[in-house]
Amino acid sequence: MTRVLLLGGTGDALRIARQLASGDVYSLAGLGKVPDDLPCTVRVGGFGGSEGMARYIADEGIGLVIDATHPYAAQISANAVEAARCACVPCWALRRPAWQPQAGDDWRMVGDWDELTMALAPFRRPLFTLGREPLAHLDEIPAHQFWFVRCLDSHEDTERSRILVARGPFMLEGERALFALQGFDVVVSKNSGGSATEAKLEVARERRLPVVMLRRPSLPAADREFESVAELLETLHLSH
What we know:
This protein is an alpha/beta fold. It contains 7 helices and 12 strands. Strands 3-2-1-4-5-12 form a 6-stranded parallel β-sheet, sandwiched between helices. A 6-stranded parallel β-sheet has the order 6-11-10-7-8-9, with helices on both faces.
């Protein structure tokens, strides 16, 4: 039986982890809640780059690496491909399809934080759904803006910000209520793909709000790539 190293931290990765065997390993960076009800071993913490991951793969007798990290975790994905290559084991990757703009959408594409803040200049009440990154910039909020930051990290509100600690999936009616209550005038998002956080885009479309969308990073090619958890799991079960 091939021993699997699953790199995760997403809802999709957790679905895969629940189908692994006792000898397999689910690896997390340590952010968010660590599951304690999985059939496989859970490992928390980094590897020390691709070289450290390659040593781990060899030392632990790993026969297959599965990258099911977030589409924006580009460094981890690069490390996974390189480590698997160095250890002479295959690397599979879950490559979740990006969202595509629909009729009525007003997406403003940006490549980095500087472009993002420039795109936000005309607005007053942005909703950030980028994760923890905006927390490092709370002292840079322009005088005319009040930020709402939705993420997993607890953080004190400031005079011009409110931290919304929440974990998806987010339902459409809940998003509608939140947008109506807080009066957001722009949404800031990564193009994460999937259904868990897509409702905010539908509400933005309904309310004719622009979305400042951070472009996806380029990811290295894995030995096999899958667009859905179901497809990956079917192939994994057949290969076992």
